[in-house]
Amino acid sequence: MTVLNLGVRCQRRSFALNIDQQFDLTGIHGIFGHSGSGKSTLLRCISGLEKSGTGQIIWQNRTLLSTADKCFVAPEKRHIAHVFQRSCLFPHLTVQENLDFAIKRRVTNNIPIDEIIELTGLQPLLASKVTLLSGGEQQKVALARAILFEPELLLLDEPLSALDRQNKRQLLALIKRAHMHYKIPMLYVTHSIDELQQIATHMSVMENGQIKLTGAIHNVIHQLNNSAMIEQQTSLSLTIAPQEAKAGGLTPLLFHNTVADSVEQGNVITKDNVTVKDNVTVKDNVIGKDSVLDIDKGGEQDVNTKLYMLTSNIGEYALQHQALRCFIMASDISLCTQEPSNSSIVNQLRGNIIAIDINEHQALVTVSVNGHPFYASISAFSVNTLDLAIGQIVFIQFKASAIQTLLK
Ligand SMILES: Nc1ncnc2c1ncn2[C@@H]1O[C@H](COP(=O)(O)OP(=O)(O)OP(=O)(O)O)[C@@H](O)[C@H]1O
Fold this sequence. Notes:
about 400 residues; alpha+beta; Molybdenum_import_ModC; transport
């Protein structure tokens, strides 16, 4: 496991960073939080740019900071690269000279320079002064420079926030590729849950200088569904079904079922504190808020459930890797108490209601399918009309177009 151990404090007038956390950086780890929650300060402590940080930082058994032992490894000796929201390139140098700066300082020579230049599409710009490039192009140079440095750890601080959608997609794919091909551990700070949903394997949520939530990506996103920090959604990993014919513009996909484990670890689904269907109580407008029920046994399905997605919504990158990170907005999922027939809606799954959260006139219904939670946002009126209750078997429905991904 690739591990970053933090016990860090940083005190400012009206803000205190207070982090005690072990980060698993085997995959990309995302840091999400509102403005001012301390995300950048945390990264600056890790890279050593923040000199007022105290405590302990241990990266892969190497101590970078230990206030007790009066140890502070200078930023240039940490071999950590830091990419910011606005690229900090050398303005008087060309693209090539900016890249050379990193190439001369790298310790190993494992990452092919030509490959990164090709992946970023920087070849035609190599002789240009960086000040003449667009914001997106400058960010590509910053990212290429950071990767070519071959850092032991890459810190990304909102690297895509100034870019348009197309540039975002391109650089997200590049970051993902850099992580998969060159195994660079990455901490990725952003306000955008969409970006993390596409590339992070784990994420932490920061609030007031502290980590409030941490865990596997789908699990944390699902836990945020009731927090008003994100748009309510189902987050899932799917594989493009091998040897399945694409038909009529649709591509069949299969479930990964990794989420079920992490959900149970995260105690979203508990087997204690069970609420029985006929005994549901309504308190503070919430039905069974603390009592979610895992009674999947009655509704078990084949783990490799097939779903259909619009082929035009799947990009080259996903097709090559056969794997897809997807999300379905809760407003795009509807519920039926009987098996639908003769419907134009191609995705229909049978599951159990495990939670119903009512907020004024709107309800978020959580349905467990093979232990994987799906979230449907429906009216409180429909909850009453259909007489929905925890433990009930229902069918969820969503169109092929409702399965979305960003990495096209
Ligand atoms: N140099 C500084 N001196 C004093 N206070 C600072 C300094 N830099 C940041 N702060 C304060 O520290 C707090 C955390 O800032 P930080 O930039 O880490 O938050 P953030 O989560 O990265 O925000 P954003 O998403 O807007 O970049 C904020 O209240 C900010 O005003």
